[in-house]
Amino acid sequence: MAFAPAGLSEKAALAAFDARDRAMDGRFVVAVKTTRIYCKPSCPARRPRRENIELMADAGAARAAGYRPCLRCRPDDVGRDRAAIDQALAIIARSDTTPPLAALADAVGYAPHHFQRLFTRDVGVSPAAYGRALRARRLGDALDGPGRITDAIYDAGYEAPSRAYADARDRLGMSPGAWRKGGEGATIRYAVTDSSLGSMLVAATDKGLCRIAFDEDEAALRARFPRARILPGDAAFAALVDDVVALVDDPARMTQLPVDVAGTAFQQAVWAALRAIPPGETRSYAQIAAAIGRPGAVRAAGSACGDNGLAVLVPCHRVVRADGTLGGYAYGLERKKALLARESHG
Fold first, then answer.
1. Residues labelled as active-site residues
2. pLDDT at 178
3. Does 180 have pLDDT greater than 50?
4. C-alpha 56: how far from chain center
5. Domain 77-181, second-level architecture
């Protein structure tokens, strides 16, 4: 069997094909012996019998074996689409401001509406949103340095400090000045409650949730936020806690709970990519790194997943190893299995 893509087992590939996992498109193709065609993993057609399937590393190998491309899923288009997206990511990365969608699509040879859909499906966010996240990441990196905050703002590509401060509130969890001071001065309310997966700590500032964790208590919260004013949650806070507990029971449900988390710009980008993973699907650490435009930062992406402070809400449980095995989880593999099972049966 001519199947040898790096880091992917035959078992994981077959599981991806059964699940019609779009994230695996371009990593291998599935050849059907009875029809002599080959498909991408997400092909919507009815699944053939297992004994009639032959896995191939790529379209070239399938064609060399005498197979022809499926006219329904068009597997040969995947490589062209990926190349266009990679080119667009490079254009955005070297631009001070994100090019308009029409200009970006024209540069890679696609119609704007079609390219917007392809980019969003592959990266998890629109080109404009990716550009904003990249600019915010540059701001965070610049703020980590010794220079003036105003210089960092302009070095990151912002035309005015007001836009940088707005982005910082949305993406860094605090103002640029507070970033440098470690977020001191915050008031955090908390509760320790029971959930279907065990004891859970829920904590939030006035802006939103700053910590969701299994098996943690007030002492752990104080150790994590030593400069904050920490108070027990009131009656109004109880409604937020109930929403979090409900999310544990049904991690696939859509939610718009407010968040207020501080982290490096790289961590923020990874956490945004995690929230873009559809319920019931998984991604590898390499795919997360690629989604934020840092394909070489696989190990750092894994560390950022481990640093996620909002369990379930930011679904790091949806990230697995490249071979399809579960990998790690801060709160135990049994909880990770349970969350994934609840999503797959939702």
1. 39, 316
2. 47
3. no
4. 28
5. Orthogonal Bundle (1.10)
